[in-house]
Design a protein that fits this description.
Blueprint: E1 12-17, H1 21-36, E2 40-41, E3 50-55, H2 60-79, E4 84-89, H3 90-95, E5 108-110, H4 118-127, E6 136-138, E7 160-164, E8 166-167, H5 178-182, E9 186-187, H6 190-202, E10 207-211, H7 220-223, H8 228-236, E11 243-246, H9 256-264, E12 268-273, H10 281-287, H11 293-306, E13 311-318, H12 325-338, E14 342-347, H13 365-390, E15 394-404, E16 407-412, E17 423-426, E18 434-443, E19 446-451
Parallel strand pairs: 1-2, 1-3, 3-4, 4-5, 5-6, 7-10, 10-11, 11-12, 12-13, 13-14, 17-19
Antiparallel strand pairs: 8-9, 15-16, 15-18, 16-17, 18-19
Amino acid sequence: MASPTDTEAPPRVSFVSLGCPKNLIDSEVLLGHLVKGGFTLVGDGEDSDVVVINTCGFLQASEKESMDTIAEMVKRKQKGRLKAVVVAGCLPQRHGEGFARRLKNVDAVLGITGREKIAEICEGLLDRVGRRKTAQSFVSGDLPKYEVDRDRLPLTARHTAYLRLSEGCNHTCAFCIIPKIRGPFRSKPMEVVVDEAAQLAARGVKELNLIAQDLTNYGLDLYRKLCLEELLEKLAAIRGVEWIRLLYAYPTFVTDRLIAAVADLPKVVKYIDMPIQHTRDRVLRLMRRGITEKRQKDLIAKWRSSVPGLVFRTTVIVGFPGETEADFDGLMGDLAELRFERLGAFQYSAEPGTAAHGMACEVSASAKAERFDRLMRQQQEIVFAHNRSWIGREVPVIVERKAKKSLFEGRTYGDAPEIDTTIALHGAAEEGEIRLAKITGFQDYDLIGELK
């Protein structure tokens, strides 16, 4: 974009980022290219010339949120100074090139590729305001081997960031549409990941949260071996990085070497996010999870015995087609015994294009809701018991932000940003510091502590 003259204000762009941390990285890259292209970022869509909506298309609920957001921005365009609406991300990628024809008064549609073109696209739209009747589509089914996540404009706190190791997924879980949106599994070369991490550390990032659709499969396609633990050693050597957290560790490719690396590397926090989705063999087969009940439980036990102080996060789905009351009761019993410190539960959502869509023996909406409520009540008791067990302990925390005088909000090593609980910290601190705190109590899910 050409530099504006002295009498021309630079065009203003606002941004809406929806969905998961992988989407958030895409949003940061898009924003970085917009700012490099001469756009001024504003927080309110009503004050901008163009708005970009980075959508999520994972579930019907997230698709509805995305479509509602698009409709709201189109209304603003029709009423105010907003000149162009751009829709990007997973939702256009899921529905393909024809998705643009579904959107009235949207000006351009971009999938999950071509992020470097965003400033050029927006500039072109502003040059042709009022002359386009249908949305211009930039959705491509040609997915690159990998994309470099550089030139990011951070949307997280300065001290924490997400680091993407790979894209896509080779698993065929019956409930999941991600492989059809993001394509097959593709690792980034190790040197690219390390370079991205070093750039993040240079800007002040202390906590790296490693993400992928399938984190534990890292390296197999490029190096013909699983090498997440080797990457962890390289990341731990980067000056300025103090915490490394593993998110989305698919259980199939967890190795003894990886577990040992989490246990032995001081900078790798003793936390694992390993979604199990269910515990009963029959349901695991229906879900196409590629793991048995015994193997899964043995793996959880190995994590527990090998990594002292481990905080374990998992995810389960209730009401999958064919899940009987006996299956659900078995899941409840297993969760009561396994006692995950952090757990997310979802009611099954039938997603078009997935293997489970239209499966027989669908569980009713009322039964799914009832099972979900029972499970979350049980999990609440487990979390509260865990919180009580931490009272009197000293644990590492990261200071997130100042709440008021001598009171800060933070997270323990056992809490990932956004998805887990927080801790109210009494004492003097600086945002981004990693300190010890003594746990003195808790309020519902959140902890209370004193900084040491």
